[in-house]
Amino acid sequence: MKREIIDGGEELDVAAPHCFCGKIARLQTSWIEANPLRRFHVCPNSSGRRKKGCGFVVWVDVEFPPREKALVSWLLRRLKELEKDVGRRQSRERNCHKMWALQWRN
């Protein structure tokens, strides 16, 4: 069995299967609302929805129960909202600094 290292450095004792192309499948984490934080093996030739590679996909993790799935999905949505809010505030702060610099020159 091959030890795999995923995004955060966590090691797994998961046998990396070969996809239909004969290559070792890549381990990824799902960030979509339907399957939040579930890990899966996918063809290394795939790159999202546009390029499917050979179409090989195998889930590693079991699906969350509905209540936990709803909670994780809500937390991920909330995180995105907060990140957007931080970005807007940083942009506003930069604009204020620019305006202050212009006024200071005059």
TrEMBL record:
Domain GRF-type, first and last residues per copy: 19-63
Keyword hit for Zinc-finger: yes
Keywords: Metal-binding, Zinc, Zinc-finger
Superkingdom in the source lineage: Eukaryota
UniProt keyword Zinc-finger present: yes
Record GO terms (molecular function): zinc ion binding
Protein name as annotated: GRF-type domain-containing protein
